[in-house]
Amino acid sequence: MDNQKIRVDFPMLIKHPDFIYFDNAATTQKPKSVIDALTNYYENDNFNVHRSVYSAAERTTQIFEACREKVIQFINAKENKSIIFTAGTTQSINQVANGYYKYNLKKDDEIVVSIAEHHSNLLPWQNIAKQNGSKLKYIDINEDGTLNLESAKKVINTKTKLLAITAVSNVLGTINNLKALINIAHQKNVDVLIDAAQAAPEIKIDIQELKPEWMAFSGHKMLAPTGIGILYGRKDLLEKMHPTQLGGEMIEHVDKNNFKTKDIPYRLEAGTPNIEGVIGLSTAIDYLQSLGMNNIEKYCKALGQYLYDQLTKIDGVTVYGPEKRQTGIVSFSIDNIHPHDAATYLDFNNIAVRAGQHCAEPLTNKLGVNATLRASMYFYNNKDECDKLIHKIIEMRSFFNGA
Amino acid sequence: MELRDLYQRIILENAKKCPNEQIQNPSVHLHNPTCGDDISINCQYENSLLKEININADGCIIFKAATTFMKELCINKSKAEIEEIVLNFSEFMTNDKDINKELLGDAVVLQSVSHLPMRIKCAMLPFKAIYQLVNGDDNNR
Ligand SMILES: Cc1ncc(COP(=O)(O)O)c(C=O)c1O
């Protein structure tokens, strides 16, 4: 992958050449092709889908449904119609919790998550557990931050009904061994939900190979606009899912007192959808596939390793997670400098990193810190930017400590 | 604004002096969930004045310096005086010109923070804590 050539595709990077954007786990920048696709949509195809007879609207409907097929092919799901469009990972997971498990969990059933979950894959389950009298159990991590598979084997038992787990930790940058986890779960007849918010942008996920029951991810973390997300569901489960939203677009017919819903996926997509978001996501997938998911994974992993190696050379810097890096996400802290002050220092030097708990408070507590710094890199970042960050961290220490 | 305006020597020094006492049952405990700034606070009154303020605080430099300043400003003051200090500081942070700077003592060196919306809550947290403290339990939650 030619980094310089790739950067040209991203107007933000070209317009702000001195700005180092290392907060890609929060959201990614958009390539020109995605921005153009949105403009083209508004200039030529801005019609509502699934409701009008005129040919322009019919064309937009066809484009829209072709995007659905594109997403299904991206995750290699077998059945068509097995995804629904949502607003993002958070909404996808909430929809599974409130539209399915709310009706399928009994008292003393158990839900299993890991200690490293993003709040979006934790709070919906805390809530359902409370409402249904079910129990929430945690898989632990090892000393080095990787998921403890032995702990998973112990925690998942015959009472477990669902394993809800992230594919990539947004703090530690680790990739969980989904194959092993799903194997453990399926042996006990446990459903699996994958939070792929951080994985979808960086690694190839193959539904037919992994066979999870559910998977959720967000467009904006993989080059697409905000406000569009995906929920994959095994078809028979989607068919049993209760719609959490009722209204237009989802019904076959309505009388004064009753309504009959359409089939999936429309039954679960009430209201006018985020058409521009769907088109943007499809265009983003084209871009990602033109680079190749394997190349993206390799590049980000190597860059994450490079930054890790440089950071660990600095005295007084602690990097969280394993020595062998798996993604472009690197969380760290600097002795005697609070992450918030460090992030402000870097901000004044045109480097954007995240400081805080990264929406994963149980994990930061487990790591024994109040907050950390996080540099999350994507395929358009490079070693040169890492070197600049390193340089500023060294400079920062004399600024704060030697003043 | 330069980084040094935000992190002046006097701010760094006062951050180092931030009180960090053991506190058993704090009357007020506040926590900033985005960055982890954390303050627990207790006090003792004598003749309606705050004779003693005990604080356990940990967080960023801005927060710790603001905590030191707050304690200095509020010791030996009455509830009404403290409320006035807090209101003045709050307006100082939102850049209101019409304030009584004399009430704020050394805390005026935090002026630059008012230009950084993301950091204002760091400086405000100790002042919020003392405000809740003197206003008793009904404001604690
Ligand atoms: C692992 C993980 N899960 C879920 C989310 C939530 O995604 P969204 O805010 O797009 O719904 C994030 C976003 O930071 C994440 O990193």
Automatic annotation (TrEMBL), chain A:
InterPro entries (alphabetical): Aminotrans_V_dom, Cys_dSase_SufS, Cysteine_dSase, PyrdxlP-dep_Trfase, PyrdxlP-dep_Trfase_major, PyrdxlP-dep_Trfase_small
Domain Aminotransferase class V: start-end pairs: 20-389
UniProt KW Ribosomal protein keyword: no
Organism: Apilactobacillus timberlakei
Keywords associated with the record: Pyridoxal phosphate, Transferase
E.C. number(s) listed in UniProt: 2.8.1.7
NCBIfam families according to UniProt: sufS
Family: Belongs to the class-V pyridoxal-phosphate-dependent aminotransferase family. Csd subfamily.
Cofactors that this protein relies on: pyridoxal 5'-phosphate
One Pfam family, short name: Aminotran_5
Catalytic reaction list: (sulfur carrier)-H + L-cysteine = (sulfur carrier)-SH + L-alanine
Class of enzymatic activity (EC top level): transferase
Protein name: cysteine desulfurase
TrEMBL record, chain B:
Pfam family, any one: NifU_N
Top-rank taxon: Bacteria
Occurrences of domain NIF system FeS cluster assembly NifU N-terminal (ranges): 26-122
NCBIfam families the UniProt entry points to: SUF_scaf_2
Name the record gives this protein: SUF system NifU family Fe-S cluster assembly protein
Species annotation: Apilactobacillus timberlakei
